[in-house]
Specification:
The complex is a heterodimer of chains A (331) and B (312). With 331 residues, chain A is of the alpha/beta class. Chain A has helices spanning 3-18, 39-52, 65-74, 89-97, 128-135, 168-178, 194-203, 213-218, 239-243, 260-263, 266-285, 293-304, 322-330, and strands at 28-34, 57-61, 80-83, 102-111, 113-116, 125-127, 159-163, 189-191, 207-211, 224-225, 227-229, 234-235, 251-259, 289-290. Chain B is built from eleven helices and one strand; from the N terminus they run H-H-H-H-H-H-H-H-H-E-H-H. Classes of the chains: A alpha/beta (331), B mainly alpha (312). At the A-B interface, helix 1, strand 1, helix 2, strand 2 and helix 8 of A face strand 1 of B.
C-alpha cells in the first residue's frame, strides 16, 4: 500500500471511531476585544465564567487595543469592548453611524505609578508640576539632570523610561501631567513592552519611569513608587488611596462597553452579572483596584435598565475619582 | 644533461607557493567553520536559555491546558492546535499555488518584458513587511470575502506571505534540472506537461520542499499580520473537530473558528506584569522551536523519499 492510501485508511478508521463519540452541542459564543490593559481582568473573568458554565458558553478575548477594539465594536463584530479610557467623540460617531448602541460599565481602577530605583534616595516624592517639568515637550534636551528638577537634588543625569505612543497608559499620563494627550518629550527610552521599562528602572540608579500599577505591584522589591503631590498631599499609589480618591490625577477608571443588541442574549447578560457580582476579587488578583460594591450594584442597575451612551461625552478626561464617577453615573 | 634541470631555487619557489596556498586553503576552512559555529552557537544559546527559563513548565499540563490568569495553570493547548491548523491551511494553499505559478513562469511563460516585470515583483514581494500582508488580508479576506477572524483567513494570509519564497525557491530548483533531461524527453515525443510532470518535477522536489520549509518556518513565527486580522489572545476552547459522527464524517467548520497561535500566546505572556508568566513564554518558545524543527524534519524525510525514487 502506498503511503497516502495508508493515511486515508487510518483517517477513515478514526472517522468511524469518532462516530461513537458523543457530539458536543453547538456552544454560544461571546466575543470580547479591546484594551490590553483591561485584558487580564477579562481573561480572569472569562476563565472563571466558562468554568462555571461548564463549557456551554465560549468566551474569546482579544488585544486589539482600546482604539482597535472600538473600531470592531462599532462595526458590530464584538459583543463587548474593553477600554482603558472612555469612548471618544469620533468613536461615538462611528457607532452611531452603524446603529450600534452600547452600555458603558466601569469595572476597575488603575493607578499609573511613577517609579524610581530603590537606591534613589532623593526623589521619593514629586509634585505634578515637577513631573510636568520632566516630561513636557519643552523639556526635550533641556531637563537632563536631577538638580534641574528640584534644587537640592543631586547633579546626576536623569534616565527616563516610559511606554510607547500606542499605549493608553501613555495617552492618559501625558493628558494628566502635560495637559495634552500624546504631548511629551521624545528623548526617553520608550517601549511597548512594560517589562522592558521595569528592567530599565531596576538597573539604573538615575531612572525615572511610569507604567500601570500591576507592573509595580509585581516588582515591588526592585523599585520604589514615587508619592505624587497634586498640591494637597504627597500620596503613594495604593488600593486605599485610589478608592478614597486622594491618588489624583494618576488614577484612571477602566471600562467595558456592551452592545445593546448583544445584551439581549441571556449568556451575555449572565456574563455581565458575573463580572459585576464576582469580578472584584479577580480584579484585585490581577493587580488592579476593584470598585466598591455600591459601584458594581449601580452598574448592574444601569445594565438592567439598558442605559446607553457615555457619561463622559466623548472628551478625554483625567483625575476622576470613584466618587465622582459614581455621582456622574447616578444622574 | 640533455634536458636542463629546473634550478633548485625555482623548485623551492614553487614549493613555497604551493605551501602558502595550502595554508590559505586551510585558513578558509577554519573561517568557514567559525562562521558555522557562530550560527549554531547563537541558536544553541538561545534554545538552551529558553529551555532553562521554562524548565519547570515542560509538563503535560502545560501542553494540554488552556490559558489562565494564573501562570502555573496556564497552558498552550489552544495555541499549538491553532498554530498547527493555520500551518495546515497555509501549506495546502501556498505550496500548490506557488509551485504551479513557478512552473508556469519557468516552463511555459514566454520570456518578454511582461514576465520580466512579474519576476521582479515576485522577488520584491518577499521583502514586504509582514504587517502589510495583515492589512491586505483584513481588507480582502476579513471584510470583502467575509471570512471573518478565522483559521482560514489566517492560513490564507500567511500563504500570501510565503508565496514569494515558495515561487522563488521552486524556480531555482526547476532551473537546476539539466537541459539534456528535458531534451531527451522531448526527443521521445513527450509533451511539455509530460516532461514537467514525469521528469522536471520529480527531480526538483528536493528544492521545492526546501522552499516550503523556509516559507513555513517563517510563517509559524509570525505575529503581526495575525494580530491585524484579529487573532485572539484568550481562547479556552478548541476548533470544531474535523471528523464528526454524522455523514459525511468530515467537517470543515473548523476553518471558520476563532483561533490563537503560539507567537501571540508568547507575546501576550512576555508583556504580563507577573514575572511567573516569563517562564511560560520561554517554555512556549522552546516548544515553538521544537514544532518548527519537527515540521522541517517531516519535509526532509519526504525529500529523502523522493530522492531515493529518482534513478537516472
Amino acid at each position: 500500500m502506498k503511503l497516502w492510501q495508508r493515511t486515508l485508511a487510518a483517517a477513515t478508521l478514526v472517522g468511524a471511531a469518532s462516530a461513537f463519540a458523543p457530539q458536543a452541542a453547538v456552544a454560544q459564543q461571546i466575543k470580547i476585544d479591546g484594551s490590553s490593559t483591561v485584558f487580564p481582568i477579562m481573561e480572569a473573568v472569562a476563565e472563571e465564567f466558562q468554568i462555571s458554565k461548564r463549557g456551554k458558553v465560549r468566551v474569546t478575548v482579544g488585544i486589539a487595543g482600546t482604539g482597535g477594539g472600538f473600531k470592531k465594536f462599532c462595526r458590530g463584530e464584538t459583543d463587548i469592548s474593553n477600554a482603558s479610557r472612555p469612548i471618544l467623540a469620533e468613536e461615538i460617531a462611528a457607532c452611531k453611524a452603524a446603529g450600534v448602541t452600547y452600555i458603558e460599565l466601569p469595572v476597575a481602577f488603575d493607578a499609573l505609578t511613577v517609579v524610581i530605583n530603590p537606591r534613589n534616595t532623593w526623589a521619593k516624592t514629586l509634585t505634578v508640576a515637577e513631573l510636568k517639568k520632566v516630561w513636557e515637550p519643552a523639556a526635550q534636551g533641556r531637563i537632563t539632570r536631577w538638580n534641574q528638577v528640584r534644587a537640592g537634588f543631586p547633579n546626576q543625569p536623569i534616565q527616563l523610561f516610559g511606554p510607547g505612543a500606542d499605549s493608553g497608559t501613555f495617552d492618559y499620563f501625558t493628558e494628566a501631567i502635560n495637559g495634552k494627550s500624546k504631548a511629551t518629550r521624545g528623548d526617553y527610552t520608550a517601549s511597548e513592552d512594560d517589562n522592558t521599562l521595569v528592567q530599565g528602572v531596576e538597573n539604573n540608579v538615575n531612572a525615572l519611569g511610569y507604567f500601570g500599577y500591576a507592573y509595580y505591584v509585581n516588582h515591588k522589591d526592585k523599585m520604589t513608587a514615587v508619592a505624587v503631590n497634586n498640591g494637597k498631599a504627597s500620596v503613594l499609589p495604593s488600593t486605599e488611596n485610589v478608592i478614597n480618591g486622594t491618588y489624583n490625577p494618576l488614577s484612571r477608571p477602566l471600562f467595558i462597553y456592551v452592545r445593546v443588541s448583544s445584551a439581549a442574549r441571556p449568556e451575555v447578560a449572565e456574563l455581565i452579572k458575573f463580572i459585576l457580582t464576582k469580578g472584584a476579587p479577580l480584579v484585585n488578583e490581577v493587580g488592579y483596584v476593584a470598585l466598591p460594591p455600591s459601584a458594581y450594584a449601580m452598574a448592574q442597575k444601569h445594565f438592567d435598565a439598558r442605559r446607553t451612551g457615555s457619561v463622559f461625552g466623548g472628551k478625554p478626561e483625567v483625575g476622576i475619582t470613584i466618587e465622582q464617577l459614581l455621582s456622574r453615573e447616578a444622574k | 644533461m640533455a634536458t636542463p634541470a629546473l634550478p633548485s631555487n625555482d623548485l623551492q619557489t614553487v614549493r613555497r607557493d604551493v605551501a602558502s596556498r595550502k595554508v590559505r586553503d586551510q585558513l578558509f576552512v577554519v573561517v568557514g567553520l567559525l562562521a558555522l559555529f557562530a550560527c549554531l552557537f547563537s541558536l544553541l544559546v538561545l534554545f538552551s536559555k529558553l529551555v532553562m527559563d521554562g524548565s519547570d513548565r515542560f509538563t503535560w499540563e502545560f501542553v494540554s491546558s488552556f490559558p489562565s490568569r494564573r501562570a502555573a495553570q496556564a497552558g498552550i493547548l489552544a495555541a499549538w492546535v491553532g498554530s498547527s491548523l493555520v500551518m495546515l491551511v497555509t501549506a495546502c494553499t501556498a505550496v500548490p499555488v506557488g509551485v504551479m505559478a513557478a512552473i508556469y513562469l519557468e516552463e511555459y511563460a514566454p520570456k518578454n518584458w511582461f514576465t520580466g516585470v512579474i519576476e521582479i515583483n515576485v522577488t520584491n514581494l518577499a521583502g514586504v513587511p509582514s504587517i502589510v500582508y495583515g492589512l491586505l488580508a483584513l481588507g480582502l479576506f476579513v471584510y470583502k470575502f467575509d471570512l471573518g477572524q478565522s483559521i482560514v483567513t489566517a492560513g490564507l494570509t500567511l500563504a500570501l506571505l510565503i508565496l514569494p519564497v515558495v515561487i522563488v525557491a521552486t524556480r531555482e530548483s526547476l532551473r537546476s534540472v539539466p537541459r539534456a533531461i528535458r531534451e531527451a524527453a522531448y526527443g521521445l515525443g513527450a509533451t511539455r506537461w509530460e516532461v514537467t510532470k514525469d521528469h522536471v518535477l520529480p527531480y526538483s522536489t528536493g528544492g521545492i520542499l526546501t522552499g516550503m520549509i523556509l516559507g513555513l518556518s517563517r510563517a509559524i513565527g509570525e505575529t503581526a499580520p495575525l494580530i491585524t486580522i484579529g487573532a485572539l489572545a484568550f481562547i479556552a476552547f478548541l476548533p470544531t473537530p474535523p471528523l464528526t459522527d454524522v455523514a459525511p464524517y468530515v467537517s470543515f467548520t473548523w476553518l471558520t473558528d476563532p483561533f490563537t497561535v503560539m507567537p501571540i500566546q508568547m507575546f501576550n505572556w512576555v508583556s504580563r506584569p507577573d514575572p511567573a508568566f516569563q517562564s511560560n513564554a520561554a517554555a512556549a518558545g522552546a516548544i515553538l522551536l521544537g514544532m518548527t524543527l519537527l515540521m522541517n524534519a517531516v519535509a526532509i524525510y519526504i525529500r529523502y523519499r523522493f530522492r531515493k525514487s529518482i534513478n537516472w
